[in-house]
Amino acid sequence: MTSSLLNDSRIARLIELALMEDVGLGDLTSDAVVDEGAMSRGELLCKQGGVIAGLEVAGLVFRFCDDGITFDPLIAEGANCPAGLVIARMDGGTKGILRGERTALNFLQRMSGIASLTRRYVDAVAGTSAKITDTRKTAPGLRALDKWAVRLGGGVNHRFGLDDMVLIKDNHLVATGGITAAVMLCRAYLDEHNVRAAVEVETKNLDEVREALACGGIQRIMLDNFSLPEMREAVHLIAHAVEVEASGGITLATVRAVAETGVDFISVGALTHSVNALDISLELIVR
Predict the structure, then answer these.
(1) Spatial CA neighbour of 159 closest among 147, 175, 141, 169
(2) 186 to each of 164, 176, 183, 189, 218, how far by Cα in Å?
(3) Cα-based distances in Å from 190 to 124, 150, 177, 198
(4) Interior angle at CA 203, CA 273 and CA 253, nearest 5
(5) What pLDDT digit, counting tens, does each position of 206-217 carry?
(6) Residue 133: in which H helix or E strand, if any?
(7) Fold that domain 4-121+275-286 belongs to in CATH
(8) Does the annotation count 202 as an active-site position?
(9) What is the pLDDT, as a whole number, of residue 197?
(10) Where are the domains of the chain?
(11) What pLDDT does 9 receive?
(12) Which of 12, 121, 132, 174, by CA, is between 20 and 30 Å from 258?
């Protein structure tokens, strides 16, 4: 899967910032012990089974370090990878490969960890109509890559930021006095400013679900921390009038039961907020 994100200037800036953070004024160790002009091959070894995501980003990191480095992925983005498989090779200047090693692995391991966990959730709800979606609980600055990894794992993206969807949450309700008032204000604002954006309302109980439905003009209702019986009743009440999203403390152990209530989306903050990086290493072969 090739992503248009690779043509996005945000990705180039992320890589530049990451390399500035790691390399600083120079790689003292490599400058001290590696001959200028030395050439090597590097192999990325997947030491733990999982879904691979971020090879294209890793390749860009090495090219930023030395545009003479060639980078050849040996597995497709989003593919399941068994432990012990070499997933990419690179050839070029030894110093450039060593300069890019940690930064490339940081991106690749994080993205692969997100994709791997997402795939486990997606597999857990297979055969239902529910889609696994992410949240804005991403690492600051890395949202584009975190959400790309979710897609590679088979999930779908929720809103990218505050500017692409209206999501009326509990604190908005406190600020405005309730669901009806908040929805009316949002609809008036969107109309006045000629903004086309979906509107979602977070609800805490069945009475709030009924109130949100009565408002009209919304596209999705979120069921936040509902019990399974409440979720089933809410789905029955909504009766496909709008999309339904389940949220709040959902785990791999509970996600199947949530999906079987008939919700359309299940949002899981853990996909990105507490990532276990996939174990991948770089092995250097001096030529």
Answers:
(1) 147
(2) 13, 11, 5, 5, 10
(3) 38, 29, 19, 10
(4) 45
(5) 999 999 999 989
(6) strand 131-133
(7) Aldehyde Oxidoreductase; domain 3 (3.90.1170)
(8) yes
(9) 94
(10) 4-121+275-286, 123-273
(11) 84
(12) 174
Output the DSSP codes for 246-271.
EESS--TTTHHHHHTTT-SEEE-THH
- Is residue 102 flagged as an active site residue? yes
Does the active-site annotation cover 224?
Answer: yes
Q: Point out the residues of the chain with pLDDT beneath 50.
A: 1-2
In which residue are the tokens 């109980």 written?
A: 205
The answer to whether residue 169 is catalytic is yes
Residue 4: the pLDDT is 63
What CATH number labels 123-273?
A: 3.20.20.70
Q: Is 137 a catalytic residue?
A: yes
> Which tokens go with 79?
């593919």
CA angle centred on 214, ends 212 and 220, rounded to 5°:
40
Helix residue ranges per DSSP H, 153-279:
170-176, 179-192, 206-215, 228-238, 255-259, 270-273
Can you give the length of the chain in residues?
287
Catalytic residue, from 137, 204, 210, 232: name it: 137
Q: Which residues, at least 6 apart from 54, have a Cβ–Cβ distance to it below 8 Å? A: 77, 107, 108, 109, 110, 111, 112, 145, 149
Burial of 261 (0-12, 13-18, 19+ CB in 10 A): buried
Look at residue 1 in the predicted model and tell me its pLDDT: 39
Query: Considering 56, 134, 146, 224, which one is annotated as catalytic?
Result: 224
Point out the catalytic residue in the list 202, 208, 245, 264. Answer: 202
| Cα(285)–Cα(265) distance, integer angstroms | 46
Encode pLDDT of 12-59 as tens digits: 999 999 999 999 999 999 999 999 999 999 999 999 999 999 999 999
